# Entry
Amino acid sequence: MKSTIDCYAIILAGGNGERLWPLSTPERPKQFVSLFGGKPLIRHAADRLNGVIPPERIFVITANRLVGMTRKALAHIPRQNIIGEPCRRDTAAAVAVACGLVKKVGGDKAVGCILTADQLMTPVGAFRRVLKDAVKAAYKSSSIVTMGIVPDYPATGYGYIECGKTISFKTRTSFRQVKRFVEKPNEKTAKAYLRKGGFCWNSGMFIWRADSLSEAFMMASSDIASLIDKVAKAKNVASLLKREYSSVRAISFDYAVMEKIDDIIVAESSFKWDDVGSWVSVGNHYPSDGKRNVCIGTTLLHEVSNSIVVGSNAHVTALIGVNDIVVVHTGGATLVCAKDRVQDIKKLFR
# Structure
């Protein structure tokens, strides 16, 4: 990116730890799980920015209860850049805080990148290239840029973006207008999207210039827009949020802003992307045995197939004569679940 572009990253890290339970919990949610490469997902998120955005320009917005744990996992990021939410208000409020922070330190023309704390992307070089190109596009066009992942199978667990005409920014990344956002489709519809082409998965990552995002908030959700300037002008952001955050309307950023504005473009991204949203997703990142079993930790299996078993090296987890299941054992809980029901784990907490 050009040196004249003042750019910042904001990692949203307020998960509640349900989908990878019992290894992840509300006290230690998914972004702190260290199943991949020996470091937590939130550290992967920060390390992906190496060479693109320096640590002093990275902010993390998380729950108050997770600030200490986040600072420990991201010791290279300035402590004051870890912002705690005093209560859950969904993503629109968090993005408004992010915009206010970027305006505060960089001004109206600074570019902010909303990124996620609990996803995997490879190769990292491809992600960095798309991010650099997206920053250029957001700065030059004043549009909000979202990263869309070119799908390689008919996923039903992701939202989709239907893409329109191509827009040229003279970069290696292809940019297209966003025609519409689509909710998670059924399998038949997802297959139709792949056959038709012109659809991307919605990654939940987007890039914007501070003045452009402020204007989008004002047009689409003016009540939440007021939080942006309050954060930008606040002497103490933590004190401001403690006073006012609970009164902000709880709504997702997609519903509050993205689905109500027209000036959005998508960066078509071909790097591999996984939001690691279930134990089946975790299994896809590990080798399997001859019977399609994935085992993490010390296990004993007899006549078992197509299963995922997660334990520890200090505890033996043994299975006999079962198929198509997930077993996860931790010091405090044990999960036994049909493999095709992993998305229902969250129902345990409703």
The CA atoms of residues 3 and 13 lie 28 Å apart.
